[in-house]
Write a structure and sequence with these properties.
- The chain is 25% helix and 31% strand.
- It is an alpha/beta fold and 245 residues long.
- The protein has one domain: Collagenase (Catalytic Domain) (3-Layer(aba) Sandwich), CATH 3.40.390.
- The strands form four sheets. It has a five-stranded parallel β-sheet with strand order 1-5-2-11-14. Strands 8, 9, 10, 12 and 13 form a five-stranded mixed β-sheet that branches.
- A hairpin with a 5-residue loop joins β3 and β4 (95-97).
- α1 (42-51) crosses α2 and α2 (56-78) packs across α5.
- The longest helix is centred in the first third of the chain and has 23 residues, at 56-78.
Amino acid sequence: MESAKANGKGNSESNTNNEDDLLVPNTNTNTGFVHVKVVICGSIGDLFYDFVGGNYQATLDEIECFVTLIFNQVAINMRTLRDWKKQYTSVDGKSYKLDLQIAFDIEMPVFQDGSFQLIPPVADNLEGDWVTSEEYYDQNSNFLYETGLNLDFLSYMRATYGATRAFQHLAFLTDYDIVFIYYFLDSNGNVVNEQIFSSVIGFVPSLATMCDDFSALPYDLRYSISEMFSPSVSRILTHEMGHRF
């Protein structure tokens, strides 16, 4: 499996059915491309900006090199998806096992007044070096509702990218600690217990959304959030993408 940096959106937005444009199959090699949009957190931009001495273009170049190295490793981790039994059917009615390759483009954070800006789901849920998601349960551990980063990102995805099919997965990379806080409430709504977990693995908000008609929904589930500077970030991204494919 190989990775390639893709410039532009390609032709995937022209599809009008409910299936993702997962691939443009090469019937000679049984390969197709998964298009991944990599979105960089503003705090990562500031970190690289300081590292290169305040040069904007050098910041973008360094981030691109770093992300390319990560996704080369993702491609090595995934090796081949033939064993995942993904198939396509050619026009002659024959089915083939499919090997997927990664094509990605990088969306840099907005640079304004000498610093890179945070997107709203991060800025609104930032507590020091933490970016948090909260889940609420009753005393019997039944889920009640959630607030925070995950919920906000669902709506942000849809509002920002619409129902585009220019990518199949969005990988948001941050250097903040992704923290999950679980609250347990009594019958009066008072917190009786609290559990805090800090984890580099981030999360993917939904499984098996590959062929869902997400365009009919007010949110978009096709993303994962991971900590960029974890030593295992490439394996984490491979794992998270595996939920989708």
